[in-house]
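Exercise 7. Given the encoded structure of a 135-residue chain, write a plausible sequence.
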C-alpha cells in the first residue's frame, strides 16, 4: 500500500462515526482519551478538559495524541453528521492511519484530505508539524 493512500478497508467517513469497537489499541506510553462529548465545541468544554489549558497546566505529556493533533489543527468543522471538534478530527486521523502518530506522519496531503473534515489548510498544518518533528 502506498503511503499516500488510506487503508483500503478504511473508507472515508465522518469522524463522528464509529464506536468503541473500532478504537485503536491503547498505547501505554500515551494518555487515554478523556471521556467528554467530542461533538461539542471545545470552548463549551470545562476548562480542565480543553487541550490548550491542559497543556499549560500539566504539560504536553498528559495530552492524548488526538489532543495534540487538535492543538495543531486549531478548530473543528461541520460534517454531514453535524459539528465535529478538533479533538474528534484528531481521533479520526489516528484511527484511519493505523492508530498512531507515526502512521499519520508518513502520509501525503492527498491522503489526509480524504478524511472527512480535513481540508488542505488542516492537512498543511499537520504536514508542517510532522516535518518540524523530523528536523
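Solution.
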Amino acid at each position: 500500500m502506498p503511503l499516500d493512500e488510506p487503508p483500503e478497508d478504511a473508507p472515508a467517513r465522518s469522524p463522528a462515526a464509529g464506536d468503541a469497537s473500532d478504537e485503536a489499541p491503547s498505547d501505554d506510553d500515551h494518555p487515554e482519551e478523556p471521556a467528554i462529548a467530542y461533538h461539542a465545541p471545545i470552548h463549551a468544554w470545562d476548562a480542565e478538559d480543553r487541550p490548550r489549558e491542559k497543556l499549560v497546566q500539566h504539560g504536553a505529556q498528559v495530552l492524548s495524541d488526538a489532543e495534540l493533533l487538535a492543538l495543531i489543527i486549531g478548530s473543528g468543522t461541520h460534517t454531514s453528521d453535524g459539528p465535529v471538534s478538533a479533538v474528534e478530527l484528531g481521533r479520526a486521523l489516528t484511527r484511519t492511519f493505523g492508530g498512531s502518530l507515526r502512521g499519520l506522519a508518513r502520509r501525503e496531503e492527498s491522503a489526509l484530505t480524504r478524511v472527512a473534515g480535513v481540508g488542505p489548510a488542516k492537512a498543511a498544518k499537520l504536514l508542517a508539524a510532522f516535518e518540524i518533528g523530523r528536523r
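Remark. Residues 1-30, 32-38 have pLDDT under 50 and may be disordered. Students should compare their own answers with the one above.
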